[in-house]
């Protein structure tokens, strides 16, 4: 595992194995929401969305698409921010698995501003949302796959993309390893939680992505509790 923390881990995550799924995956998504609250998962996404909104001269309405959303829980923070700032926000939650879509629909059953669609990243239409977000999503792609995946996110956005992912480091790996075993007996969570950290990012990975995309608009910053906020503006004054 320590070797995996030096190089991006190649071992597949169980949540990427769509032949399994079922109730155990839905339970894992519930437990993942607890981990997200403990580790402050929503903050980098909110920071990036707010930055792109300001750069667009603070429009009165804003559409967001969350790609690879899981149950989409971080988006509740975006809606609260929108309420405080008088922004008419609509959010589309998109995920490849039906279990994730079911969890997202259940979580936001009384929220008319959110719709849920089962959709592949590579089937997204161009310019379908002002901002496209990916929270703990792009670490699922290998170094070779990552630029193509991010280009699809950019194509789907009008203003830009916000990525929120994990800093690959022994401290968050140990914290996640311990926390997953304290809060859950779910096999997905115990396996995928620490592995997600091992498949996370360091500054040099974002520099490589910036070079591969050939865009000066990619900016990344380290955020508390070992996360990166990455903002890629399509147009910047």
From TrEMBL:
Residues 64-155 form the Methyltransferase domain. It comes from the Bacteria. It holds the Pfam family Methyltransf_25. This is Methyltransferase domain-containing protein.
């Amino acid at each position: 595992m320590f070797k995996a923390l030096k190089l991006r881990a190649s071992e597949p995550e169980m949540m990427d194995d769509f032949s399994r799924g079922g109730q155990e995956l839905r339970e894992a998504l519930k437990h993942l929401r607890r981990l997200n609250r403990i580790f402050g998962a929503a903050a980098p996404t909110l920071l990036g969305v707010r930055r792109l909104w300001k750069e667009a001269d603070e429009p009165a309405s804003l559409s967001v698409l969350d790609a690879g959303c899981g149950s989409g829980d971080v988006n509740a923070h975006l809606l609260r921010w929108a309420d405080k700032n008088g922004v008419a926000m609509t959010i589309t939650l998109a995920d490849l698995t039906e279990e994730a879509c079911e969890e997202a629909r259940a979580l936001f059953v009384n929220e008319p501003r959110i719709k849920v669609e089962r959709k592949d990243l590579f089937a997204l239409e161009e310019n379908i949302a002002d901002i496209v977000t990916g929270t703990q999503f792009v670490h699922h792609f290998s170094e070779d796959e990552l630029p193509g995946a991010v280009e699809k996110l950019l194509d789907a956005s009008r203003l830009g993309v916000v990525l929120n992912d994990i800093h690959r480091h022994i401290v968050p790996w140990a914290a996640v390893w311990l926390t997953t075993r304290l809060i859950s007996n779910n096999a997905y969570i115990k396996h995928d939680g620490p592995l997600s950290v091992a498949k996370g990012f360091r500054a040099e990975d974002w520099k490589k992505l910036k070079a591969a995309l050939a865009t000066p608009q990619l900016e990344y910053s380290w955020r508390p509790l070992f996360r990166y906020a990455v903002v890629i503006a399509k147009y910047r004054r």
